[in-house]
Amino acid sequence: MSIPPLITFQEDFLSGKLISKEYVHFSEIDCPELDVWIGRVVRSISLEFLHEILFTILSELLVNGCKANGKRVFFQEQGLDLWDEKDYSRGIPMYKDEFGHNRKRVFLALDHSNYKITLSTIFKEDYIEFRVRNNAKILPEEKNRILKRVQASTKYKNINDAYRESVDNEESSGLGIVLIHILLRNSGISNQFFQLMTTDEYTEVIIRIPKQLIPKENQTNIKNLLVREVSSLPPLPPQIQKLILIAKKKDVDWHEISAQVEKDPAITAEILKIANSPLFGAHIPIISVLEGVKRIGLKNLESIFLTLGAKKILNSRYAKQVLVWTHSFKTSMYARFLIEDRKKHLKLLEPAIISALLHDLGRMVLLSLDLSQVNQIRVLRSDDANEISEWVEEYTLGTTHSEIGHLMAEKWNFPDEILDVIRYHHKPWQCKTRNNILCQIIYLADILANIGRGKGNYFTVEPEVLEYFEITSEKEFRDMQERFKLKFEEHREEYQTLLA
After folding, report:
1. Span 1-28, pLDDT tens digits
2. What are the residue ranges of helices labelled H in 451-473?
3. In what order do the strands lie in the sheet with 194-198?
4. pTM for this one?
5. What average pLDDT does the structure give for the chain?
6. Are strands 194-198 and 19-23 parallel, antiparallel or unpaired?
7. Which residues contact 386 (CB under 8 A, 6 or more apart)?
8. Is 6-210 a CATH 3.30.565.10 domain?
9. Is residue 4 within 8 Å of 22, Cβ to Cβ?
10. Residue from 323, 402, 319, 317 nearest 359 by CA
11. How far is it, in rounded angstroms, from Cα 360 to Cα 394?
């Protein structure tokens, strides 16, 4: 019997059409295509933080389906009736032993059966729905076991608690259903996300992910709270504003602008640090402001002054700013490496370096809200959790650091290219201006710089961006990331000095 062809994933996620894939081989479950597909789905609804969680959940459901089908094929091979209580009691220990010692053979036997599993998803107005369907009728024992797991999952805060108190020892079953509920519940998703459907023809598990994790009214209140926080930020320091005006003059010369910089010792020190940093490929140290501004370049000085002004305000106001500046500097360096490595858009090298320094401005506000504001947000969000991850925290607010950062940059009159990067560095495909390529550069550099922090991988990158930068395989992506990491380590001491 030939293996049915796999159904190709459709790309028009927002059309409401059914997107599906059939799985026959167990080996197909942990496949790159599934990872890419989930990445595209979650990016389309701005829930990127759920990527790995959904991959874990859907993989678990697919594996469970394969186990169930393998059991049915095994019983047929042994001449046992799955629906007969005596045969079931006799066959289950045999299947456990076979599955434990010859798992590969169990799953290969599925190739010659009519059993299959279909994974599909469809977009609704308020939620996205994943369906894992098995074309086999569920046994009463299997259904009861699933329902018991669902009920048991409510008493566990995390998977470690569940492992300490095993909820099921039969048929080599793990804690998949419990894991699913814990992961989704801890991601801010309500308990109405899981549904089991059974008929005489199939068994189907439905997972529903709301597009908004809190009510719109509460989101509006939270966003207003954050907007007020941004509105309360002071204007850029007067000396910085004066330097920006001079830098914008068409007839400005090096001596005029360097003389103005030298009037402020703190700005002088910052300009020399930046000019001597690896950001501008410095090899020969310089000690004069005149040479410093020449190295930075007149067209870049306005953005550098904006960066210095923002840094001065944010450093004095927010406690966690060092974390953001550290990552921003790393992203800036990776943007340089990416442009040089791909030999594309060398003219965008300096704009990319500076834009990357500022791409995460909004994260400083979200990470550094004072305790009273955090408590207000928790009340508005009706969140009982004491601890929640950075990504979940951000997306359950109903806004993003990109939106908040864009408001900050508008307040301080940043140039359009930086505004676009701040707004679209996670979704460059939404940027419809001439700065689209710049946004793509920062998007990819940001992911590459974040990999060491456990965020993102080859499969989370938008395929069109990989194609644009001619990255054709996971190996090529990993090799690039490793090259960049080694180059960045060469400058670690320099960037620490720059952040001081």
Report:
1. 233 322 233 333 444 343 444 444 444 4
2. 463-468
3. 19-23, 117-123, 127-134, 203-210, 194-198
4. 0.68
5. 77
6. unpaired
7. none
8. yes
9. yes
10. 402
11. 13
